[in-house]
Amino acid sequence: MFGKKKKTKFNSHIDTLIGTNTQIKGDISFTGGLRIDGRIDGNVIAEDEEHSTLVLSNAGQINGTIQVANVIINGIVSGPIMATKYLELQSNAQIHGDVYYEVIEVQLGASVDGKMIRGDRKIQTNHTPALVSAAPDHNPENKDDA
What we know:
The protein has strands at 16-18, 23-25, 28-30, 33-36, 39-41, 44-46, 53-56, 61-63, 66-73, 76-78, 81-89, 94-96, 99-106, 111-112, 116-118. Helices cover 0% and strands 42% of the residues. It is mostly beta strands. The chain has a domain at 19-109. The strands form two sheets. Strands 1, 3, 4, 6, 7, 9, 11, 13 and 15 form a nine-stranded parallel sheet that branches. It has no helices and 15 strands.
């Protein structure tokens, strides 16, 4: 009566389950909903970035890049996460990598060992410094500039 009913921000339907005793070495590309209870050594990328959902249970582990619209993590991730719409880090989540998100929910106990970057930014695989020649020359010895 007084409280609002929590409205799901995305489609929570799960189409595919990777079980607890399953280990996959290689990249996974999917559409719809994917729940991982096992271990993935590779990237997990959704082909449909508008409506895709990834759920990683407390028994699950991913060693690679995650690029999915809606991500719910309660396990271990070693690699960057790009959640283009919604990211939920539940209490057992352990993230070792940068996190890119639009909307985030973090529960008590979750940990992130990396940068947390809000907005529609892409993962930068190579860090190139800004061009020095683009800035005007500044000579501290020249007192006429003051």
